[in-house]
Amino acid sequence: MKEYVRFEKSRQRTIGFVPTMGYLHDGHLSLIKRSKEENDVTVLSIFLNPTQFAPNEDLSKYPRDFEKDSRLALESGVDALFYPKAEELYPNNYQTYINVEALSRHLCGKSRPDHFRGVATIVSKLFNIVSPDHAYFGQKDAQQYFIIDRMAKDLNHDVNVVMCPIVREKDGLAMSSRNVYLDPQERQQALCLYRSLEKAEEAITAGERNAQKVKAIIKESIDQNPLAAIDYIETVRTETLEPVDEIEGPTLIALAVKFGKTRLLDNTIVRI
Amino acid sequence: MKEYVRFEKSRQRTIGFVPTMGYLHDGHLSLIKRSKEENDVTVLSIFLNPTQFAPNEDLSKYPRDFEKDSRLALESGVDALFYPKAEELYPNNYQTYINVEALSRHLCGKSRPDHFRGVATIVSKLFNIVSPDHAYFGQKDAQQYFIIDRMAKDLNHDVNVVMCPIVREKDGLAMSSRNVYLDPQERQQALCLYRSLEKAEEAITAGERNAQKVKAIIKESIDQNPLAAIDYIETVRTETLEPVDEIEGPTLIALAVKFGKTRLLDNTIVRI
Predict the structure, then answer these.
(1) pTM: predicted TM-score of the whole model, two decimal places
(2) Which residues in B lie closer than 8 A to residue A103 (C-beta atoms)?
């Protein structure tokens, strides 16, 4: 991979990078499309990163389909597919971890305390291998984006970290590799994430600025679905991810809701 | 700095890098010499890194002399001197830190628990800025070398981390910017670090393999100096820095000894 990158850079080609954990869906494909528009060469990585899963989480059953993924990569015009083994990226005696401290304590950091340490570590490693000019991440994992953007700036990685819009199923569910875990009833009720965010946006458009009230609107909407168990509903400042009392300036409204063992994320950024 | 590196790389020039905290002495100059022998271009950085000092340590009084340093850099043939400000490398809202976990707990890690987190972080940042082919560190700070070497491998930095021999004053004291802190009496007694290591080497050459006995020889030799307060005397495996009971295979014998507030390091690597 490093040789490929060195060769392309020696030809003055710009490199776009789309890091994924595989099981590609239209959300990933939108990142590839954007990368192709903005770079000479697009590198896709598929790596199910063990260090971002806690022992009790779904690493072992995370969905994978390398044949389909590589076909989709080819069809979407990816120039290079990077598909390392876990023991290549985490050899014996591996012991180096990157913490983006304050940002990792908010939102998902509360229920997944070491998750973003694993994310920051693997992305910094991949940045060192791929040396991209631009790297593309989906807004669905908004906290992940802000952490990676901060990490890249703090560690002086020479990369522009780009956030791309959430891609949704026709009925509004945010695309996620984990959606396959949902049974039909859960799948139906999972629409409440998107719908509750729409209601929050409507209220804000109508003038609501009180964060507690906005969160109450979301909670009421989700609570109508008996299979939904709310992990968090938060209104935070973008960039810092610190909770806000008033909706003012760019504000991330973020949800995590569990259906059985499946934890789904959704969010919207409002700019008032 | 990044532009300079990009330009030199575009001309296929290899880059050697010598990161320092300034107040250059012959130890630093030996690193520059080695870098010039092995690379087309040598970059020297001078940055007194605040994140590797604890609040009670000597950051504020650490010796500095930029005029002399830049003259020595010029005379020794450095091609580029990188001299960033603290607020450039640690801007507002900085929050990303790198831990090399197991290696940082041994030796100096016990009395300086966050020191190597600061070291690993700044060196990874500098590697991302300077993109060196080779980076040079002195054996005097042997634990620092092994941590940086591990960090560079773990994070996939594309750099060869090189350890250079300890450079000593004529009477044997290992060169260190901190030697200027010593008063004449302390300076005289500080020779006990080197001399005790010589005695340990003699004993090992004569057949001693028991680590406790080797450490006792060192302790006895140092204890003859009333101003010397031992922080640690350790015999550890190189690479892992784990304590050994028997001197067998490459073994680092490392000391930290305080004279008043001044903490001095010295070490030797024996290969049996």
Answers:
(1) 0.97
(2) 95
